[in-house]
Amino acid sequence: MPSHKADIDHIDQIFRALGDPTRRAIVEKLSEGPISVSQLAQPLNITLAAVVQHLQVLEESGLVQTEKVGRVRTCRIDPAGLSLAEQWMADRRSVWERRFDRLGDLLVESDESE
Amino acid sequence: MPSHKADIDHIDQIFRALGDPTRRAIVEKLSEGPISVSQLAQPLNITLAAVVQHLQVLEESGLVQTEKVGRVRTCRIDPAGLSLAEQWMADRRSVWERRFDRLGDLLVESDESE
DNA sequence: AAAATACTTAAGTATTCGCTTGACAATCAA
DNA sequence: TTGATTGTCAAGCGAATACTTAAGTATTTT
To answer: Could you tell me the distance in Å between the CA of residue B107 and the C1' of nucleotide D13?
Structure first.
């Protein structure tokens, strides 16, 4: 039985997180490898506090994991989050494309209704 | 030479569009097949005007196409939009996973820095 | 110990967003 | 023609969002 309530909620958080361009820039940067919060902030033209807020959203969504050692917090991508969202889109597409197959059948057979 | 400015802008619109749960519900519904605006509105607990506004966002993002014949506008998914977003995520993941491969190499060879 | 680094947290602000209401246009049915 | 569908447009409202500033904490350096 696929797609629990918890999963739907998770998908919700993931897409909400990816909806913001700055957060996508963060994910993009992290895809090159794990870095600290201030390294992450440097290329973006916003304050460190703003970056921290974005990271909270990303971490709650499960797209990013962080770990603090000493005074520096290191951030890395969790690819599972991305592939969950990927799956959602692939599913919608496949349902859509399967429809075309059935449509083809109907055009050929041309009777026997639903 | 991949990823033009126009593409980035397009990706921006797509992810922004998918960031809203109601719009994802619309995409989900449309994946079952093309339907009219009021049919789309029926299961959602919002006014028709709100649905039209969501459809504008979805159409501008390229995720949905619509066509009006008579007084009814029929909406359908454009799978190209979905696969573009899918690609973006797959790319981020692959960069990340390629990093692991290189890390493996380094651990095995354990010299020759770059 | 003192200063610098690397965050963290809270409060405030300006803008954006999703939604409603209400008035309107166009098409189809009786 | 009259009335019912089906959608469109504009204005406005409350809540959410992305950001800043400012004050604080914990850790490392000097």
So the answer is: 60
pLDDT of residue B40: 97
List pLDDT tens digits, range B18-42: 999 999 999 999 999 999 999 999 9
- B38 beta carbon to strand D: under 7 Å: yes
The list of chain B residues with pLDDT below 50 reads 109-114
Alpha carbon distance B50, B13 (integer Å) = 18
Contacts of B41 (CB under 8 A, 6+ apart): B47, B48, B51
List the domain boundaries for chain B.
Answer: 5-109
Compute the distance between CA of residue B7 and CA of residue B104 in angstroms, rounded to an integer: 34
- Determine whether the interchain pair B15/A24 forms a contact, defined as Cβ–Cβ distance below 8 Å: yes
Task: Specify the pLDDT at position A73.
Answer: 98
Query: Which pair of tokens denotes residue B112?
Result: 């020759």
Top-tier CATH class for A5-109: mainly alpha
Model pLDDT, residue B51? 98
Task: Determine the average pLDDT of the residues in A76-101.
Answer: 90
What local confidence, expressed as pLDDT, does residue A96 receive? 82
Answer yes or no: is A33 CB < 7 A from strand D: no
> In the structure, how far is the CA atom of residue B70 from the C1' atom of nucleotide C28, in angstroms?
9
- A19 and B24 within 8 Å at the Cβ level: the answer is no
Element (H, E) at A40: helix A37-41
The residues, ordered by sequence, that sit 6+ positions from A73 with a Cβ below 8 Å of its Cβ are A36, A37, A66, A67
Give the residue carrying structure tokens 């093309």: B34
Asked whether residue B73's C-beta has any atom of DNA/RNA strand D within 7 A, the reply is yes
